[in-house]
Automatic annotation (TrEMBL):
GO terms for molecular function: carboxypeptidase activity. Gene3D superfamilies: DD-peptidase/beta-lactamase superfamily (3.40.710.10). Keywords: Carboxypeptidase, Hydrolase, Protease. SUPFAM superfamilies: beta-lactamase/transpeptidase-like. Transmembrane segments: none annotated. This is D-alanyl-D-alanine carboxypeptidase. Residues 13-247 form the Peptidase S11 D-alanyl-D-alanine carboxypeptidase A N-terminal domain. The keyword Protease applies. InterPro entries: Beta-lactam/transpept-like (IPR012338), Peptidase_S11_N (IPR001967). It comes from the Bacteria.
Length: 272
């Protein structure tokens, strides 16, 4: 199997069916930041499929969520207690802006509380062959940044950890079971609409402008120290997944672009 030469300590190129083509430390678990959001996204789509929620259901902001959004570090969109919006608008902002707030909104709506979400997520991951996961919250944030959702019994640095193989598995399930997620990531303009505000925003995913291959989605993840990118690309009549995790930001200039450049390079190296 080909070994990838990339800046990230952990990387992988595989097919949508889960077959692996090239790797770098594929079994090493690292912080994946907002790539973690793939899990609650899957669970939301599944809840819609089962009829537990509909896209037009309205979600009402709790005091805890309103207080969470006061932190500029974790929330771009500010919400007030009682403010309401649709599930569909929340998903758009959650996946495109990586708005952490809605990870907790979805988890509490579907599973009642974060403890139940965690228990059910561990069961889901075990079903997918991922055992003993480190999955303390649905957003990918470290404990010190969780504001109203901090766990006082855990260290500040406690955060979700996954390997490239595990992220490949998560991504394959999401895209195969709910391929409509790719249509979402292709849209360019959005409005997050509540009963109190309209918040316009643009798709900031830079992979849409990468010319060499036809990138279709999927998710970035950044922390103060690292950045990650999981991409779905169409090439030679097939679909592939690139996994690029926990690259140190001090080695990356300009910030927020090298994860795309490196992913394109490793895909070219594997596919030509």
């Amino acid at each position: 199997m080909k070994t990838l030469q990339v800046l990230a300590p952990v990387a992988l190129v595989g097919e949508l069916n889960g077959d692996i083509l090239a790797v770098k430390n594929p079994d090493t678990r690292v912080p994946i930041a907002s790539v973690t959001k793939l899990l609650i996204t899957y669970q939301l789509y599944d809840a819609i499929k089962q009829g537990i929620l509909s896209w037009h259901d309205r979600l009402v902001t709790s005091q805890r969520i309103a207080d969470f959004t006061k932190s500029d570090l974790v929330a771009e969109i500010k919400l007030s207690t009682g403010e309401s919006y649709t599930v569909e608008d929340a998903l758009d902002a959650f996946f495109i802006l990586s708005e952490n707030t809605f990870a907790f909104v979805f988890a509490e709506k579907i599973f009642q509380n974060i403890a139940n979400w965690q228990a059910q997520t561990i069961k889901l991951l075990a079903k997918w062959g991922i055992n003993n996961p480190v999955i303390p919250n649905p957003s990918g944030l470290s404990n010190q940044d969780l504001v109203t959702y901090q766990d006082p019994e855990m260290t500040d640095s406690y955060e979700p950890l996954f390997s490239a193989k595990e992220v490949l598995t998560m991504t394959s399930h999401l895209v195969n079971d709910f391929p409509e997620i790719l249509a979402l990531t292709q849209k360019m303009k959005f409005n997050f609409v509540t009963d109190r505000q309209v918040y316009p925003y643009l798709n900031r995913f830079k992979f849409l402008a990468i010319p060499t291959h036809k990138w279709l989605g999927l998710k970035t993840g950044t922390s103060p120290d690292t950045e990650s990118f999981v991409g779905v690309v169409e090439a030679k009549g097939r679909r592939y997944i690139t996994v690029y995790l926990a690259a140190r930001i001090e080695f990356l200039e300009p910030k927020g672009t090298n994860c795309y450049i490196e992913s394109e390079k490793m895909l070219t190296d594997v596919l030509g």
